[in-house]
Amino acid sequence: xxxxxxxxxxxxxxxxxLLLFLVASGLTLIFGIMGIINLAHGxxxxxxxxxxxxLSSLTGSLAVAMVLGxxxxxxxxLFLEWAxxxxxxxxxxxxxxxxxxxxxxxxxxxRSLIVGNDVHGVPVxxxxxxxxxxxxxxxxxxxxxxxxxxxxxxxxxxxVLIQRTRLGMMIRAGASxxxxxxxxxxxxxxxFRLVFALGVALAAFAGMLAAPVSSVYPGMxxxxxxxxxxxxxxxxxGSVWGALVAALLIGLVDTFGKxxxxxxxxxxxxxxxxxxxxxxxxxxxxxx
Amino acid sequence: MLRRLAxxxxxxxxxxxxxxxxxTFYTELVTKIMIMSIFALSLDLLVGYTGLVSFGHAAxxxxxxxxxxxLTPKAAAAGLWATLGAAVLVAAACAFVVGxxxxxxxxxxxxxxxxxxxxxxxxxxxxxxxxxGSDGRYINIKPDASIAGFVPFDLDRPLQAYYVVxxxxxxxxxxxxxxxxxxxxxxxxGIRANEQRMRSLGYPVFAYKLASFTLAGALAGLAGYxxxxxxxxxxxxxxxxxxxxxxxxxxILGGSATPYGPIVGAFALTLLQEFFSSLTTHWQLWFGAxxxxxxxxxxxxxxxxxxxxxxxxSGAGGDx
Lengths: 288, 320
Description:
Chain A has 288 residues and is mostly helical.
């Protein structure tokens, strides 16, 4: 492989992996801290992408659409946690699977009612339309670099939030021993509600970021959801750091798999998961 | 004993005489529901009796269906008995291999990993030319059931297909009852109740789980085979995760770990879908909302509701 091609593929892998991380980190936090399996998490990604499409065509600016979209998705997260998920904490996984499966159907159908079933494109913002030359003939779009940069910033922000703030301390404590934290007088339910809203906002934001690159289409959420399950399984439930490593790993395997053996690229990621399961059934970074 | 048998016998008699009313559409609909009942029963062996929530059971259903499609020549009928055996064996073999991996995990992991493996099967059939790609494959001529010149039934006739599927359902149901009463079945239920205890009693827990997973896969393969034979068509959607979700819904809606629950669930869910889709094109909205409300307000499924109602009718009486 030529160096320039290799570099482009590496950048693509990085960008895809980081995007997966945004969705998967929320998923792993919700699993790890609340013990909830949320199949509808991919729908938040889809909702984000559709918000980017609708709001940016209404306001004419993707940046404005993103700010509005984040606010709306936080509100959506708070509402869903209050109305539905808070009733699921003490139920078994089976019921969580069912309820969130029902939610997927609702979200997809609402999407079809409101925006329709067409595939849409979202224009790249004027600022980032340029491409950078790589080598003599290759170029790389600036927007994709911006995406990766934003994702990295968010990852750093999450690290600070979880490791360095009081809220992060409560989150970590709530994950390891919920009852004890409650006894200490911390409002765990409030912490859970915030974490859930954060997860929804991250997934929706990933969808908004991705909208100009991948088109906006029905079913986009479910594809992302299942890959994010693989990320969480490889990384270890509840580990944000594990999600980052696993997401980057999957970005690499998927991107280079498509170059080497396009027909089997869809399967490669799952084979990777199978191998890691044999080696470490609890994922790479499972916390005790 | 008599009272316990009365309801199922009446139900069976109803199902057995139903197609004589003569509406082919409904005969075919109930055939489809009975195939889904077999599928749901096979999943309940895992979910209800072994305590393994598999979210990838459609993979084995699909493998069974694809086995028939790929063994059927373009312009001739395949032999039913040979292809049926092959479909069940291939599905069992796939479940066995996948089981080796997924049974190393538990809880939420198990749910996600079974889903991911099912998705792998989906991509194998969807992305490669191997099974006809995303277009799927037609089964132009239904399998031929003749044994040395004698033809016991003809799947091309809806009425005969109906009774063949009914017979398969009854056989699977009784077979599973037998398995659950056998030492194997008792051990599985022991594992569901307390895996640690079974392990300390010296049971090879992993081997038992693997046996259960393989058997459930084989029966799902049987259901898939029947479905492919009925529709004359397979495509990757039959092993998509919607299919896995649907069958899980049937088990839960009907009540898992109850003998008739999965069958009740298959009927209820399919009829519910038919009902909603006849009302509006956006039926999934109402269907999804129904699921959400059922989970919130009716934990345990319809089977448990029936039981609860029956119990309150007969005072503090027995367990139906």
